């Protein structure tokens, strides 16, 4: 799985001249997200200038020449179609690169998501990486528009460690019915609302288990599964390890 997904932190101080950067062609999709600065890329003869809060998805087999970086911070990487749970996202059918802008809270959410992806890559947590790529792709549209309810739902689930809530809780926060939330999330992300909640719970539990000062019973409550024995079964079903085994490996 490792050779099907990659992510790297981008941190370029100052200005990087074209002579410092080479042309390349990937046999899979490439992506980049900037949190600061700017970057200019020539993709199949077309220039794309990226700024803070902007995400680019580049189709496979495109000729990419990074012309310059200017105080560029963010994340870059690639993924193959075979890595995805579902390859039917509209963005994957676009013959040209797509640039999506995220502002304010949305940009913070995306930056935190990419940061978590870096940690997941180090931990070889390919389940979370797959769900993260799904999450990114479902928020990008060829026309540059996002689906409001699924986007806000994902932000609520993954921002601020809110995974302890139920589908009904999130539906109430979004002023929709649980059935509508399930339907629209499934339609736009190819996963159910409870699938995303469980992914967030496991990701949060893994992060907390790395802190040996936090009791496992407390972790169970913090991820919304107050019954410690049920939490242990849930965690093992999703990861193959009991919470204690994961903590001590």
Write the layout of secondary structure elements.
Elements: E1 5-16, E2 23-25, E3 29-43, E4 46-50, E5 54-58, E6 63-79, E7 98-101, H1 105-123, H2 126-138, H3 148-158, H4 167-173, H5 178-189, H6 193-209, H7 216-222, H8 228-239, H9 243-248
Antiparallel strand pairs: 1-6, 2-6, 3-4, 3-5, 3-6, 5-7
Could you name the CATH class of the largest domain?
A: Mainly Beta
* Count of DSSP-assigned helices: 9
* Assembly annotation: single chain
- Quickly count the domains: 2
Give the low-confidence spans: none
Helix content: 40-55%
- Mind describing the biggest β-sheet? 7 strands, antiparallel
**Percent range for β-strand residues:** 15-25%
Radius of gyration: 19 Å
What structural category arises from helix and sheet content?
alpha+beta
Whole-Å distance between the termini?
21 Å
Cα shape: globular
How many strand segments?
7
Q: How does this model look, in words?
A:
With about 250 residues, the protein is an alpha+beta fold. It folds into 2 domains: about 100 residues, Jelly Rolls (Sandwich); about 100 residues, Homeodomain-like (Arc Repressor Mutant, subunit A, Orthogonal Bundle), CATH 1.10.10. The protein is built from 9 helices and 7 strands; from the N terminus they run E-E-E-E-E-E-E-H-H-H-H-H-H-H-H-H. Strands 1, 2, 3, 4, 5, 6 and 7 form a 7-stranded antiparallel β-sheet that branches. A hairpin with a 2-residue loop joins strand 3 and strand 4. Helix 1 packs antiparallel against helix 2. The mean pLDDT is about 85.
